[in-house]
Specification:
By secondary structure, this protein is mostly beta strands. The chain has three helices and 15 strands.
Length: 191
């Protein structure tokens, strides 16, 4: 499951698709209005999580079954991100980890949008993410992202990924939306 992510490379996003340079975000969560790249390659804001009939938000969909059924009014989109968080069970706790690419300051996750809301498409986790979680966002390169928007098969990027354990601050609603969230736990203590 991918429930939280960052968008740090906002200058690159603006250069690639036009529009203003947005402030960096270190804690993108369901319910927030966040940028997505639409099928016509424009940046628009949408709410993270599609409203279900029961009122809850669907934030992810599995790629394995997604394209076998009708899209039900959903269009393809790209979810720009610089990295994402996952939690690894350790005893009775869950430790947060931050996953990003040392080579690419901006990645794109495949997504689906209804225009005012979106979800992130996930796939089986690849190494090193598979050491902490069994799923991850379906990450696309710049070219594969454009092909996906125009109806092509989503091909996961071969970008190298790195994982870093981060502090427990990411678990708290009052955590500041700043770079301390992606720092190793011994480098900050805000509460």
């Amino acid at each position: 499951m991918c429930s939280r992510y960052t968008i740090i490379g906002t200058r690159l996003l603006a250069e690639r698709f036009g529009g203003p340079v947005l402030p960096p975000r270190y804690n993108c969560v369901p319910g927030h209005r966040l940028p997505v790249v639409t099928a016509d390659q424009k940046i628009e804001e949408a709410i993270f999580g599609l409203r279900r009939e029961d009122g809850a938000r669907q934030i992810n969909a599995r790629a394995e079954h997604l394209f076998e059924s009708p899209s039900r009014g959903r269009s393809r989109c790209l979810v720009p991100m610089s990295g994402f968080y996952e939690w690894k069970p350790v005893g009775s706790r869950r430790e947060p980890w931050y996953i990003s690419s040392p080579d690419l300051p901006l990645l794109y996750a495949a997504g689906l949008s209804t225009g005012d809301a979106f979800l992130i498409i996930t796939c089986p986790a690849l190494p090193p993410v598979s050491t902490i979680h069994d799923r991850m966002p379906l990450l696309l390169s710049d070219d594969a992202g454009i092909a996906f928007l125009t109806g092509g098969d989503p091909l996961i990027t071969d970008a190298s990924l790195q994982i870093v354990r981060v502090g427990m601050a990411i678990n708290h609603p009052g955590a500041p939306d700043d770079p301390s969230l992606i720092s190793p736990p011994d480098q900050h203590d805000w509460w």
